[in-house]
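In the lab's daily routine, each protein ends up as an entry in a very long ledger. A line of letters takes care of the sequence, but it says nothing directly about the fold. The fold becomes a row of whole numbers, each drawn from a learned catalogue of backbone shapes. The protein below has been through that process, and both of its lines are reproduced in full:
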Amino acid sequence: MQGSAIISRPASRYIREFDGLRAIAAISVIAGHAAIAGHIVKSMSPAFIAVRFFFVLSGFLITGILIDQVVNSSRPGQSLKAFYARRCLRIFPPYFAFLIFFLAIGNEYVWKTIAWTATYTSNFCFAFVTAPAPPLSHFWTLAVEEQFYLIWPLAILLLFRKSRNTVIVFMLALITTSVIYRIAAANGGASRQQILHLPIASLDSLVFGALIASLFRVDNSWAKKLLTFMKWTGLLVAIPVVTSVLVAKHFGWAGFPDLNTTGQLFVAVASGAVVIHFASVETNSIFARILRSPVARFLGMISYGIYIYHFPFDRIVYEQFLMKQFGWPDYFPYHFGFVLVATIITASISWYLLERPLLRLKSRFPYSDAGHQVANSDAGLSGNKDKDDSETIEPDEKIRRHVA
């Protein structure tokens, strides 16, 4: 392995680079929020892009698990129950611990919206009832993912039982519908929350990841060619376009795709190219080695906690307390550094004392007799687990060798 520049993934492996990519995305969310507060950027573009990457990765990993562990099972009903139980063990503990803490200290906004957040419908609340506010402004993404987890397994189970080609056509239709919705909503005068926070608005990112996972499991030449096309389109077209949009947005230039509408699809395609690359081959490039480093993998492991816990440190502790009460400067390095350190400490404590102990209960909810057991993380925003109790999709070996 050390002597090769590119190594095909073995038949059953743990994609360590995904942990590092998740760490980068989580830190980018913190940086994006701190940068807008410190007037470094004029919008939360780094956070916006990081969340879309999380969505693509989530769709990729979750769909792979569903195909490998549920669709290919002789007892799909039992495996589906196991899937939901395992998702609950991963998602619920830090989410509800966060809510309980702010209820206990009497946070007015959390009490006001608890019926929405407790049922993972805060995105609808923000779109139609009340504007998002700290400490829950970022919870809409968790609601979108949970709604996806609730419905998508049933869709995959029903459609894959008929035809995988039907599933792929269905996914392409969903991606198109999502983009059309955002364009129509923006032109129709909808609010930003209505354009971006409803489930249909993020379907292109989530389903694009699901499409990649599905294509990895179609053993024919057109699937291989399409994966290769998607990878290089993302690397050579989407990434430069997204970069240009970010620069244009910062300087107020006109004539570039709007991140809220068509630009989001470019972000999904760029994110998908990265996912395809690391799902296909293992490289010994400097960047890949950084992603596989122990520090990067640990941060990726606790990235779900980083995402959940960071916003109160940003908007409440730093801005409303340290700046106003102690005169700390509205200066990006201070702001970002404080939030990053405080969040990593909190997420680490949460991981070791709350999340990891409960994840051991997953052994009580095994999949029935799935086609093969594989290893890695199983979600985007919801992060990683112990390596010994983890799973991901495994790309078909024949396709993997052709996508490089």
About this structure: The two ends are 17 Å apart (CA to CA). Confidence is low (pLDDT under 50) at residues 1-12, 370-375, 384-402. The first helix runs from residue 16 to 37. The beta strands are 6-8, 281-283.
